Amino acid sequence: MKNYDNIKTFEQLIEVEHGKIGTETRNIYEEKSQMFIISEMLKDARKEAKITQEQLANKAGTKKSYISRIENGRGNIQLSTLIRIFEVGLNKRIGLTFL
C-alpha cells in the first residue's frame, strides 16, 4: 500500500504513484503524459481552425487515420510528421524545449 501521509507537492505525489525520475515506471508515465498533451494540443488547434481530421490530413500530406491516432493518444509520432501537421496543416509554429 502506498503512503500518502507526507505528500505536500504534486511532484511528491507523482513520485509515490510513478517512481523517481529516471525509473522505468516514471519514464512510461512521462511518455504517456507528453502524448496526452500533444493529442490535446492537436485537437484544440484543429477545432480552432474549424477543419476536420480528413481536411487536416490532406493539407499535411498524411492520412486521416494517422491524425485520429495522434488525437487519441495512440501510436508513435515522427517528429517531422508532427511538425508538418502543425506547421503546414494548421499554420502553427512548434517550439521544443529539452530539460
Keywords:
99 residues; mainly alpha; 434 Repressor (Amino-terminal Domain); Lambda_DNA-bd_dom_sf; 62% helix; Cro/C1-type_HTH; 5 helices
Outline:
Helices cover 62% and strands 0% of the residues.
Characterize the structure shown:
By secondary structure, the chain is mostly helical. The protein has one domain: lambda repressor-like DNA-binding domains (434 Repressor (Amino-terminal Domain), Orthogonal Bundle). About 60% of the residues lie in helices and about 0% in strands. It has five helices and no strands. The chain has helices at about 10-20, 25-50, 55-60, 65-70, 80-90. Helix 3 (about 55-60) packs across helix 4 (about 65-70) and helix 3 packs across helix 5. It starts with 9 loop residues before the first helix and ends in a 10-residue tail after the last helix. InterPro entries: Cro/C1-type_HTH, Lambda_DNA-bd_dom_sf, TransReg_Diox_bact_type. This is Helix-turn-helix domain-containing protein. It comes from Pedobacter alpinus.
